[in-house]
UniProtKB/TrEMBL annotation:
The keyword Membrane applies. It comes from the Bacteria. Its main location: membrane. Pfam families: Cons_hypoth698. This is Sulfate exporter family transporter. Keywords: Cell membrane, Membrane, Transmembrane, Transmembrane helix. The chain crosses the membrane at residues 44-63, 84-102, 108-126, 138-160, 166-188, 200-226, 232-250, 271-292, 298-318, 330-352.
Length: 355
């Protein structure tokens, strides 16, 4: 028996936890810098013009572009960008009442579904007009219309997408997703949007559920609440869309030697991630009065801090130079379909007379 190499399963979690610390420490350092910048802004101007969430994203992107973190940082950065984000979104549910969405009426729910479907159709049309392969067009359409990388990852095996198409779609979505988070608040003064209206816009246009936090927290709590709820409805459309594509996939012609993967359908966990269920569970408990008011402030602070750390991790995963590695046609399709999505969302807000 070799005592120098014990095979004790209890030691594996500890080793895994140690592997996370280098990357998490890097994210925490960026978070501390972001919090410091916000504190200086508050001291100088009375309120921050650039929130810590945004500073964390920019700081992570700047560092990632100038320096490639080694493999020892990878596990912690990935953990921060995924698991911590998911926990933050789950905790946010405790401060949200589902009545806010119900009070908006069936018109808003119908508008969300219609906006998603129209965005998918517009993206497919643009892709085909510009000569993109059918599968590539579908990936971009679903990524733009539903939830970015998560939608691309769920749809790819269903339609048998080529790995290079998946990589290009995700690479561009990562960069554009951050740009949307940074630029979308400009529509508040430009379009004269209220907090509620901006929340609807962010929920309809921001790619990932956690990124809604970064796009709406600087605007206000009302924007964050309605934006998250609208986004959750949008994400839940991934299930029906994937099911529909599973029937369409056999009709797609082979491209680039892609193999037929029409039977590879993702499970329930792919269609409805655990953090969405957690968010809805906490929101339901809050709506029923089962979450005490005294617990809300600390939960909100924890969620905010985890989100800032996660934004730093997301920034560290985006190399701006990667934008040059995707084709011009992909750039035109993604930006064009995003413009259509924003335009349709603004029209929806005006048509429904949301205040």
């Amino acid at each position: 028996m070799n005592s120098r190499h014990p095979r004790n399963p209890a030691l594996r979690p500890a080793r895994g936890a140690r592997a996370l610390w280098p990357g998490l420490a890097l994210c925490l350092a960026i978070t501390a810098l972001a919090a410091g910048v916000q504190a200086v802004e508050e001291e100088a101007f009375g309120h921050p013009y650039v929130e810590a969430l945004v500073v964390a994203i920019l700081g992570g992107m700047a560092l990632r572009t100038a320096w490639q973190p080694s493999e020892r940082f990878a596990a912690g950065i990935a953990f921060g960008a995924k698991q911590l984000l998911e926990v933050a979104v789950t905790l946010l549910g405790a401060s949200v009442s589902l009545g806010a969405l119900v009070a908006s009426g069936p018109a808003l729910l119908t508008g969300i579904v219609g906006t998603v479907l129209l965005s998918i159709l517009a993206s497919l049309l643009l892709g085909r007009l510009l000569g993109l392969p059918a599968r590539m067009s579908i990936l971009i359409a679903c990524g733009n219309a539903i939830c970015g990388n998560s939608a691309i990852a769920a749809v790819a095996p269903v339609i048998g997408a080529d790995g290079r198409d998946v990589a290009a779609s995700i690479a561009f979505t990562a960069v554009v997703g951050v740009l949307v988070v940074l630029g979308l608040p400009l529509f508040v003064p430009l379009a004269g949007l209220s907090e509620h209206q901006y929340g609807v816009l962010a929920g309809l246009c921001v790619y990932a559920v956690p990124q809604v936090l970064a796009a709406t927290v600087p605007i206000g709590l009302a924007a964050t609440q309605i934006g998250t709820l609208v986004k959750l409805v949008r994400v839940l459309m991934l299930g029906p869309v994937v099911v529909a594509l599973s029937f369409v996939a056999p009709r797609l012609s082979p491209e680039g030697g892609a193999t037929d993967q029409r039977s590879a359908r993702p499970g329930l966990g792919k269609l409805v991630p655990w953090f969405i269920l957690g968010f809805l569970a906490l929101a339901s408990l809050r709506s029923l009065g089962l979450v005490p008011d005294a617990a809300l402030p600390p939960l909100a602070r924890i969620a905010t801090m985890l989100t800032i750390v996660s934004m730093a991790a997301l920034g560290l995963g985006v190399d701006v130079r990667g934008l040059a590695q995707v084709g011009g046609r992909v750039t035109l399709v993604v930006t064009g379909s995003l413009a259509v999505l924003i335009a349709v969302s603004l029209v929806l807000i005006r048509v429904l007379h949301l205040s």
